[in-house]
Amino acid sequence: MTMLRFLSTRLLGMLIVLVVVATVTYAVFYLLPTNPAQLACGRPCTPDNLARAEAFMGTDLPWWRQLWEFLSGIVTGRSFGHGDAAVLCAAPCFGYSFQQNASVTDLIVSRFPVSASIAIGAAILWLVAGVAGGVVSALKRGTWIDRTVMTVAIAGVSAPSYLVGLLAILIFGFTLGWLPTGGYVPFTEDPVQWFVHLVLPWCTLAFISAAIYARLTRGQMIEQMGEDYIRTARAKGLTEGRVVTRHGLRNAIIPVVTIFGLDLGALLGGTVITEKVFSMQGLGALLIDAVHQLDLQLVVGFTLFAAFLIVVANFVVDLLYVFVDPRVKAAA
């Protein structure tokens, strides 16, 4: 019952956050002077054509009614227009892109595998490299190993992602010719080429993010290894490896788990710069195109979808706390 109450509270909080994000996002984009019907009306746009476009898209309704139609469409789906010309948007409907003549959901689903491939691979790489580097640096504090790891970490934190990506393309793509410089091959078509084309984007993102994780892990490990329970564990005769991994690292990794979940959720919503540098048509490229075309339906739907990913990632982190942190498990 305690775990059920914990899950119910978190799920209710997720729902409230998503409703607030949807409301604010909708208000920001649809209460602006820009009229989506005006953009879709074409040229010449006569008053009669504009009125028909507004009625078809539903922008002639009061703002609160438009917001309700948008939110209810996510659950039940919705339609635009009437009669034979009506456009059906099946649930979950995050809107309809009249510029691209497709539902926002379908556009997101078609681009999501690209962004997910980049984000998940890079996240695993930077988590392993960052945590391992931070632990080694903390255990070798003050040595040349510590200084080397922190120097690389500072370089990673300071370097812009586009610069790292361009340097990787120049060195490993053009100069050495080891890896392709861009493009995406679906996993279902050729798993080997899928992996090869993603190596550079993975390493680019991992180099930047692993630096942050290494610095964070190092600081946490230094703090934890000086606690009384570490000295107690050593006094009991536990091996140094068990003291480090079972006690020190387990407590030091708690804030790392928090940041990792949020970072992964944000990256799943699209890696704008990395996708552009490596010519990959993921969610980031989709968002840029939507902004350039003033495709408000797509921008609003994409923003809500990205917020959903971050909220879900935060929910997963809360669940992981129960297993990672004994204090949370006891409180639950």
In words, what does this structure look like?
The chain has 332 residues and is mainly alpha-helical. It folds into two domains: 2-104, no CATH class; 107-331, MetI-like (MetI-like fold, Orthogonal Bundle), CATH 1.10.3720.10. The protein is 75% helix and 3% strand. The chain has helices at 2-30, 36-41, 47-57, 63-76, 104-139, 144-158, 161-175, 191-225, 228-235, 240-252, 254-268, 272-277, 283-292, 296-324, 326-331, and strands spanning 78-80, 87-89, 96-97, 102-103. The strands form two sheets. The chain has a two-stranded antiparallel ribbon. Helix 8 (191-225) crosses helix 10 (240-252), helix 9 (228-235) packs antiparallel against helix 10 and helix 11 (254-268) packs antiparallel against helix 14 (296-324). The longest helix is centred in the middle third of the chain and has 36 residues, at 104-139. The radius of gyration is 24 Å and the shape is globular. It starts with a helix and ends with a helix. The model has no long low-confidence stretch (mean pLDDT 81).
